[in-house]
Design goal:
The complex is a heterodimer of chains A (321) and B (280).
Chain A (H helix, E strand, L loop, with lengths): L1 H12 L4 H12 L5 H5 L1 H11 L6 E5 L2 H5 L1 H4 L6 E5 L9 E7 L2 E4 L4 E2 L1 H13 L11 E5 L17 E7 L2 E9 L15 E5 L6 E6 L2 E2 L18 H15 L3 E9 L3 E8 L6 H5 L4 H13 L3 H4 L2 H13 L1
Antiparallel strand pairs in A: 1-6, 2-3, 2-6, 3-4, 4-5, 7-8, 7-12, 8-9, 9-10, 10-11, 12-13
Chain B lengths: L2 H33 L7 H8 L7 H27 L8 H8 L6 H21 L6 H25 L13 H18 L1 H22 L2 H9 L4 H12 L6 H6 L1 H5 L17 H5 L1
Helix pairs in contact in B: 1-10, 3-4, 3-8, 3-9, 3-10, 4-8, 5-6, 5-7, 6-7, 7-8
Classes of the chains: A alpha+beta (321), B mainly alpha (280).
Amino acid sequence: MVLFCAWKKLRQRGVLGINRRNADCILDQNPRSLFANVDNKLQMHNLCRRIGVPTPEIAAIIDSHRAIRRLGESLADADDFVLKPNRGAGGRGITVITGREGAAFVRSTGERLQLDDLRQRAADIVSGIYSFGNQPDSALIQYRVQLHAALAPYCFHGIPDVRVVLYRGEPAMAMLRLPTRASQGRSNLHQGGLGAGIDLATGSTFHAIQRERFIARHPDTGASLLGVAVPCWHEVLEMSRRVARAAGLGLVGVDIVIDARRGPMLLEANARPGLAIQLANNAGLLPRFAEIESRQASMPWTLKSSNAQCKVAAVRSQFGA
Amino acid sequence: MSRTMCVWLIAALIAVATLAISLERRQQAKEIAAENGTSMPNWRTHVFQATSFADLSGADREIAAILVLIPVAAFIICIFRNVIGLTTYGSFSPALIGLAFRNWDNGPGLAVFLAILFAAWLIRRRIESLHLLQIPRSALMLTIICALLLGFLALARFRHGAASPVINLFPLVILVGVVERFWMTEEESGAWTSFRMLSQTLLAAMCVAVVCGREFLTRHLLSHPESLGYVAAALLLLGRFTGYRITEMFRFREAESNPTATPTPVTVEVGRTSASWRRF
């Protein structure tokens, strides 16, 4: 009985559950063949290049054990970079280097790493322990995004990003993800990062959570998490639209970082976006999806303006299901 | 027709077909009993007799029993993961572990299993600093687990007992996977999460063991193997189950009880920061 009440309340709020996300959104509207577009960061990078969306450049691709041996040469004059798996998920396997100290590399957490440690990390990535299904992977050396001054008070040892969840190419919900001490500088929610729901119209935050519980202030810096204005908000939204349409996925989570010098840049996209964004926004996704569907049904010509792939995806999702 | 409707239809068809076969089998058995073996058996009798595995014995019966129980165990896992929403190490590891220990008289076997899990985990922590590549590392873990089992075998011989009822080869390989996942979860999300996941895995395994350990279920499935059709139909329905998982109701509970979503103006005071920041 208690369960039934809880069920009904969730239905009323329009919370999207994981079964429904998987069946109705991912399996029905995200064709498997398009997953590589977003799971593979290198392909995503190239896609962004094609559609003119700025994205942090990739300095080196380490795809073999030979390349790992030569890691020292590849990093000869790099002192500010991110080592990440090409097909990783959930922020796993990412090492952020913010400087050099003699031969040692300094992590964003302050830890010192030797070249051999980095080699080991690269070897782990290449052997596939962070990729889906433990497939062999490659490691990327990527430009490290610089923290935007407007967001500095809300961050602890890391870079925040904006996660926009788009349904059929239209933004449905967004949140600002902020790193904390608990998340060790990563902005992933399940690792203890903060999620602050963003009002899509104004671009400022109105609710925040940590570990699925409401939180009003940043636990490490003490700054209020409510009313934070995301810089370049409309650019961020427009960028997310372009990426979602190019990726051709019915439901996609787009992660955008705001670089101090270059403004919004696409970090990555996710074909299986998490559901915690609903907690961060204190609202359910289903009403937003319904609204987008009805808007698109009443204005079918808007599809013409998007590219062909999105049209296929949208048509498939409208008439196939 | 919507996809979900399609799935319902297929599931219903499978269930009806299964029921028809079951009734036919019962009818056949009645006829044979009534005729007392006087008439010539036709092809249908042959088919029904060949597909009734109740009269098997020994190792063949064990194989047949495991084959009919695996789908049931897998179905229980589906309930645990998709309806209740527990997280387990590997999709079907708990199913295989549960099947291996479905005879509860095998208490010592369970103790051995847990002891090996614990020992393997300790060793996994040790060899991390050697920075071995993944596949050789897993192979090494497998070797170590085999060596541990051999050790138990030697111990059993020393005590003049038989090791075969205690040691079960079945979940051996998945044990490597469980240890690996356990260790990775511990590294990434802490010991609490990894132990919680382990207990959920063991809980699922226990339920599988309890259900699959019922002798009447095994007997029924062996004599009526077509009953797997019901399992298939139920799995089809679960495959399009889009309701909330029970754990999700707790996860999203905060969203409904939280009083405020309206921005409250709070100013940042430099002097009064949170405790964790000061500690830093």
